[in-house]
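Appendix B. Raw example, untouched.
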Amino acid sequence: MVPAPVGDYFEAAPGGSPANVAVALARLGVPARLLARIADDMLGRRIRDHLTGNGVQLDHAVAATEPTTLAMVAVGPDGGASYDFRFDGTADWQWTAAELDGALDGPVVALHSGSLALTMPPGAAALRELVSRAAGSVTISYDPNCRPLLMGDPAGVLAGVHELLAVADVVKVSAEDLEWLLPGTRPEQVLEDWIARGPAVVAVTLGGDGVLAGTASGVRSRRPGVPVTVVDTVGAGDTFSAALLAGLHRRGLLGAAARPALRAVDAETLDALLDEAALAAAITCSRRGADPPTADDLESRRSTA
């Protein structure tokens, strides 16, 4: 439920972090399959229509008997979003290992996950096992995307983050996430620590100040933010992750066979990837709700820049 454009009201908007990433990937022309437990209720049907309408493949989604999770969004004067949730016993968190059998069948080159799905019991354990198992065959993309209201103790969450860094290839984290996980620690310090734990690429998004990133081969980059009038920041981080993955996909840098090339990405390629992702995220910030750009939107913005 997101703020309506006028008045003190809410309006329904399908979302959720991995769903936003899937929609953004599909809009950028990348085939995307969403592993999701989608309720057969009014909100669940709206979510399903939103995903299929954007070209997201749902052939591996579960028709859940539990109700849909409800997130309520408040937007501050600077466009920053805060969240409240109604989640007890809802569909998203009830994953079983059996439901994930065959999840990676077919021509899958990357698996992206993060946020609440990897921290909420009982399903988090099954999803973490899937990520660990998939690491040998596909690129693993991970975004902690912290939600303090539901995740509990940051020290416990950080321990889980460190476990996933050991199997992840591409990691995106926001400065806001880091302030909760590691208060007072400079993003540059976190970047060096996290790269040393195994990923090929780590990107720390800094809001309007751009992005800081590094690679396993020693490349470091700091790219500026894209000037934009911020409406709200809902879905901006998800769009960044999707655009980063889309850029890697276009360059043939996803999949287990491409892992050595991904780890050896040069500075020019890294800068181009970060600039594309930052532009996509900025466009999302200029729109209400999680409304990521299409490939045509990106090209149009680049041609007028």
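End of appendix B.
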